[in-house]
Design a protein that fits this description.
Helix content: 40-55%
Number of helices: 14
Order of helices and strands: EHEHEEEEHEHEHEHEHHHHHHHH
Strand order of the largest sheet: 5-2-1-6-7-8-9-10
Oligomer: single chain
Shape: globular
Radius of gyration: 19 Å
Largest sheet: 8 strands, mixed
Distance between the termini: 53 Å
């Protein structure tokens, strides 16, 4: 069996390392000629994991046509690159190929999840993957659990078989929309808690904000059409806590910088924070579904409206209960 992975970043490489245990060949599509040569000759991704040798059946390529015989393709790319990638992919594969999205973002202003964008090009049988999953731990084969969801349970079973190892566990749930939303909303909560930490807010208050964020995650998922129970899954509560409390979380770091009144020029730095790109979308979702979320409002005030964090936090605290 041949599996494709689009994107040779930290997560794409880590998933490739895991899947390679269960299949004949993993085709890793990337954009840099030098990195392709390095991976194929030395079996190291020098940009992300210079100290971790990749499995011999992982092959890097620059040619999207090399994916034409893949039965499953993982899309481990930022949400901003989704449409362009799917447009190119449409000329290579048909509806029989199972697409797996790992992107934790929502398109703005359409408010479409990555899965809904996939439906525009293919069908609704895609699989969504999300969980408390730091790629740096997956690539080392450390114990990890993730959720996958799809409208096609047969596709979920195939993807689970590809991913599951003794240390990487996969739990299937039916609520594909909830899986995708959880991955987006947790970024907002990670930013919120990062802002609080950057401001040196006391821990009693920080964990009150975290609890409130979880409760509001349930409301947002339910009101947008998902299953409220998904918020309690690994992709929900697990990922929310992980990214809200770990210093390895990019969105938590983004929040800390804003909490310290350091404005980030993301274009200049080249860093992509999926959470920041999702704030406008989640704010609109709350407005459109009449969902009250003081945590979303707090993050929106600080990141988008650039209200001083102290003023924004006082507003949050006056409305929390």
């Amino acid at each position: 069996m041949k599996v494709g992975i689009i994107g040779a970043g930290s997560l794409g490489t880590a998933i490739g390392q895991t899947v390679a245990l269960n299949v004949d060949e993993v085709i890793l599509l990337l954009r840099k000629e030098k990195l392709k040569t390095t991976i194929n000759e030395s079996h190291y991704n020098s940009e992300y994991y210079p100290n971790t040798r990749l499995r011999d059946n992982i092959v890097a390529t620059l040619d999207i046509n090399d994916l034409k015989d893949c039965e499953v393709i993982f899309l481990t790319i930022p949400s901003s690159a989704f449409r362009a990638t799917l447009t190119d992919l449409k000329t290579v594969i048909g509806n029989n190929t199972i697409l797996v999205t790992t992107a934790k973002g929502i398109e703005y202003p359409s408010l479409k999840t990555m899965g809904k964008i996939i439906e525009e090009y293919y069908d609704n049988n895609y699989v969504a993957l999300s969980g408390p999953n730091f790629a740096s731990e997956i690539v080392l084969n450390l114990p990890t659990i993730t959720n996958i969801g799809s409208n096609n349970m047969d596709n979920c079973k195939i993807v689970k078989k590809l991913l599951q190892t003794d240390y990487f566990k996969v739990k299937i749930i039916k609520d594909v929309l909830g899986v995708e939303l959880s991955g987006v909303i947790k970024n907002i909560n990670a930013i919120a808690n990062g802002i609080c930490e950057g401001m040196n807010i006391n821990e009693n208050a920080r964990y009150a904000v975290l609890t409130k964020g979880f409760k509001e995650t349930e409301d947002i998922i339910k009101n947008f059409g998902g299953d409220i129970s998904t918020a309690s899954e690994y992709c929900g509560f697990g990922d929310l806590v992980l990214t809200s409390t770990s210093t390895e979380s990019r969105n938590h770091t983004l929040g800390m910088l804003y909490g310290q009144r350091i404005i980030v020029d993301e274009k200049a730095s080249g860093i992509v924070f999926e959470g920041k790109n999702s704030i406008m979308a989640v704010k609109d979702i709350c407005t459109n579904t009449n969902t009250e979320s003081v945590v979303v409002d707090f993050v929106y005030d600080v990141i988008v409206k650039q209200i001083p964090p102290k003023i924004a936090f006082n507003r949050l605290w006056s409305n929390i209960e």
